[in-house]
Design goal:
The structure holds two protein chains of two kinds. Chain A is mainly alpha-helical. Chain A has 13 helices and no strands. In chain A, helix 4 packs antiparallel against helix 10. In chain B, about 55% of the residues are buried. Classes of the chains: A mainly alpha, B mainly alpha. Chains A and B meet through helix 2, helix 5, helix 6, helix 8 and helix 10 of A and helix 1, helix 2, helix 4, helix 5 and helix 6 of B.
């Protein structure tokens, strides 16, 4: 980035050799943004990479030992497993639900209202959503009336109430359901926009050729929606890797539900181990890097 | 819908009723509703203070993001300079960088210059974290504006600053609205950045932090938690219903933001 060294030695401004040193006015426009990005994103990112190689108080060089620790301890391997579960289940469930609802609402009369209802959770904070879902999952011993919706349904159907939040068999699924509830509206809205972009003639033509609704969906609509679905899936994968608020408020990562972002928070504030916290952040970045490359590639293609 | 309705109904029920019967039973007579829970979270649990804090954090942070991003986006869209395309690719890449990567160094910097626990620190941090996406969204909109309009203005001697202020900004109201709503909700609903840079101090805590503290200390006090959560949802829901179109546009444009 050029520093603002003004070339004021009286040379005519038309002289090309002098003009090279003139401060381009564009930099004036970019300076505030560049300063923010440099101070809050670029420099700290490099600094974190560096810190992940040092001991908890960033004094002693420890090589890759933080990474080795994270990859070999049961408790932290669990963190990777959970993030992987989020990535696979949350992403696929949200994409499928969003696609399904988009196709369905496209055909009903109250489309706008139906969409708004599914979309509302996007406006609410994950913190509030976490409260909402903790309440949905409330557990009372079987001899009491259930006050949580999920257990009330389970007991009405003749089952035993389940402690959804602390039961390690179910709790990750329970959290992922809450995440899906929040994000389905996003998938729905983006896919619907894609659906609107498919020319009606194409679908008409397929119908004239004798295709039934199912064939139209699988052979015409789905392939045409593919780019949109990729965009939605990429966004969801990124969010599944970074999931924090929901886990922090619902379980704080206890009962085997910890994820990378929450683990980093714990390393920082519970254990005071900044080195290992940095390593967690770097691993998070490593997971997101391929998606970043994908985004940049897509952007470049759209520009040409 | 059902989960949200449950929260809403419960926030008006007495503590004893919430703890012993499902909220759906409250929808039949005898009706038993109260405003006590709201009084209690707003006055004794500090939600009124937190509501103010959330506003004081969110409004300037949103305005700052929009202003700085609009100026930079103009340069990317309408000014020629060396390295423009490469620099813009950096911005596109930064959109998805996990902000976890920046927490420790920024926290250290804040601690050493006394910005921890301050609203200024929050404004700057949110503006920076929102910047890549904001520039991306606005630049894409600015580029698509009619070229003739700007070129004839330049022929008549308009400066970049005039073109920015008189032509680009007025024509970009929809994009600015979409970005404004998006960023407003992003900051309003943030928990992580507030937890890290503000610490848990009640005097500065936004509502997300206060709610998560309530969950920690009164995990089963549903009368408090439901009312508190609903207080935090009022403004986003109002924004959502009043400006749904811009909101949806912002989300659509934001399909790349992680």
């Amino acid at each position: 980035m050029p520093e603002g060294a003004p070339p004021q030695r009286g040379a005519p401004s038309g002289d090309p050799s002098e003009r090279r040193f003139r401060l381009d006015p564009a930099w004036l426009y970019l300076a505030p943004a560049a300063a923010l990005l440099g101070v809050y994103l670029l420099y700290p990112a490099l600094s974190t990479l560096y810190m992940s190689l040092f001991d908890p108080r960033s004094g002693q060089y420890v090589g890759l030992s933080h990474y080795a620790y994270l990859l070999t301890h049961r408790e932290t391997i669990l963190v990777f497993r959970n993030n992987l579960m989020w990535l696979l289940l949350f992403t696929s469930a949200t994409v499928v639900l969003g696609l399904l609802l988009a196709v369905l609402t496209n055909q009903v009369r109250y489309e706008a209202i139906a969409k708004a209802i599914v979309f509302v959770p996007m406006a609410v904070s994950f913190t509030a959503a976490a409260v909402i879902w903790r309440f949905m999952y409330v557990f009372q011993p079987a001899r009491f009336d259930q006050i949580g919706v999920v257990n009330a349904i389970v007991t009405t159907l003749g089952g035993q109430p389940v402690a959804w939040i602390s039961n390690t068999t179910y709790n990750n699924f329970a959290l992922i359901v809450a995440g899906t509830w929040i994000w389905t509206g996003f998938a729905l809205v983006v896919v619907s926009a894609g659906l609107k972009g498919i020319p009606a003639e194409i679908i008409e033509a397929a119908r004239v050729d004798g295709a039934n609704e199912r064939q139209i969906f699988w052979n015409v609509i789905l392939p045409m929606l593919q780019p949109v679905i990729v965009v939605v899936a990429v966004t969801l994968v990124i969010n599944s890797l970074k999931v924090f608020d929901l886990v922090y408020v619902m379980t704080f990562g206890n009962f085997n539900t910890d994820v990378l972002a929450n683990r980093m928070f714990k390393e920082m504030f519970t254990f005071g181990n900044f080195g290992r916290a940095s390593a967690v952040a770097v691993i998070l970045l490593a997971g997101i890097l391929p998606l970043m490359a994908l985004n940049i590639r897509r952007f470049r293609r759209e520009q040409t | 819908m059902v989960p949200t309705l449950g929260l809403f109904v419960s926030s008006f029920r007495p503590a004893r009723a919430i703890a012993t019967s499902g909220w759906w039973t409250a929808l039949r007579p005898p009706f038993e509703f109260t405003l006590q829970n709201y009084e209690s979270v707003l006055l004794t649990q500090g939600m009124a203070q937190s509501f103010r804090n959330s506003l004081v954090i969110t409004v300037p942070a949103t305005a700052l993001t929009m202003l700085v991003a609009a100026i930079a986006a103009y340069a990317f869209a309408w000014m020629e300079f060396r390295g423009r395309d490469a620099l813009f690719l950096v911005v596109v890449g930064l959109i998805v960088v996990p902000l976890q990567l920046t927490l420790i160094p920024v926290l250290r910097m804040y601690a050493s210059i006394g910005l921890t626990g301050t609203f200024h620190g929050m404004w700057l941090a949110h503006a920076a974290y929102g910047m890549p996406f904001a520039i991306f969204l606005l630049r894409n909109f600015f580029v698509a504006l009619p070229k003739d309009l700007l070129e004839s203005a330049f022929l008549e001697g308009a400066t970049h600053f005039t073109a920015f202020r008189r032509i680009v900004m007025p024509l970009s109201v929809p994009a600015l609205a979409a970005l404004g709503i998006f960023q407003f909700l992003w900051v309003w609903n943030d928990l992580l950045i507030a937890l890290v840079y503000l610490g848990g101090h009640r005097a500065v805590a936004p509502m997300t932090v206060t709610i998560s503290n309530l969950v920690n200390s009164f995990g089963g006090a549903w009368q408090l938690l439901t009312a508190a959560a609903f207080v935090s949802m009022v403004l986003p829901l109002a924004v959502f219903f009043a400006l749904q179109r811009y909101f949806v546009e912002g989300i659509l444009a934001g399909a790349v933001k992680g």
